[in-house]
Amino acid sequence: MPINADHSTDIPLSHPDITQAEIDAVVEVLRSGRLSIGPRQDLFEQLVAERTGRTHGVAASSGTAGLHMVMLALNIGPGDEVITTPFSFIASANCILMAGATPVFVDVCPRSLNLDPRRVEAAITPRTRAVVAVEVFGNPMHMDQLERVCRRHEVSLVEDACEGLGGVLGDRPIGGFGRASVFGFYPNKQVTTGEGGMVVTDDDRLSDLCRSLRNQGRSPTAHAPTGGTTGQGGSWLAHERLGYNYRMSEINAALGVVQIQRLDDMLIKRRRVAGMYFQQLLDCQDLVLPTIPEGHEASWSPFVFVVRLVRDFGVQERDRIIHGLRRHGIGASNYFPPIHLQAPYRERFGHEAGEFPICEAASHRTIALPFFNDLDETQVELACHTLRNLIQRERVGLR
Ligand SMILES: *Cc1c(COP(=O)(O)O)cnc(C)c1O
Question: Which of 40, 129, 189, 247 does the annotation list as catalytic?
């Protein structure tokens, strides 16, 4: 296979959408002298809370930190079970381990690849305290059903909304389901702060606990000494509980403020790119394209664009196609390997292949294609053309 030496055609898997407005906002923070615990964090929290119809936003240093704080604020710990999906980025299960609780995986729905509400209900035991559910790749399907199941059984729904900011289900925004929801702002997300995250909730107590946990266990109302660096002690050095430093800096928050204000424009761009992929690949018999719930095409917040090979193909064929794309300078990835088969889960709980067949079958056949706001038509065409050729080659090999 010829290796494409012309790297000017390289198409990354993802790329942040940063304009002069973001650059100016960050420079302004640097000039202000207030680099942490300041007005930009407050404003960013307010904007994300408003966007999701929540009363409180608590910014954090990452989505994972946000999830960890929610587990602790719900008083989840050793002896407790938390139901979650094996098909996700690993942080949605790791937060359960970080709190000392036991993750209980259940298989996903084959269409949406999100937690299957019926399987969740069947897995609830007297020890179940919460369900951590994810809108995988930005697909909001079943979150309302999961909310009903959790309510019926009096367990907390924690929405890991890290892949869905800006999307809605019916008339309800992602980030508005369950006791608390968590966003992540890593550079491949719909909104980025470089690194960062946020808990949103309507629960005053949970919000206060998260504020305390992110700030070394200080009182949720503790104020940093003016200037932030020359404290005189007082309430600033009183710690009510074991806490963490999970704060978000003003630099990150300033970036987030501009990004969330641009979110609607960015979503239009993302849906346009997704539309180009659908157009290019709709007739490809070897691929299953992402499922968007009917009537939700215009309210979808695509996070990544992940296609699946049909059942004729195995994991080796899939991996060769991904490597082939990369050799051609086209970013590609295997979102997501099953979480229960990752080392920490195999080692601790003895999980084995075959336990969650729907998740595993999907994991073996997914190909994430380049997806970012400014991807142009030529790049999408090149990615799809290359993908089709690589699939064709594997088809021939399968005969
Ligand atoms: C991105 C993401 C997170 C959070 O990631 P951080 O890198 O910690 O911000 C959590 N869960 C899911 C499903 C994610 O995709």
Answer: 189
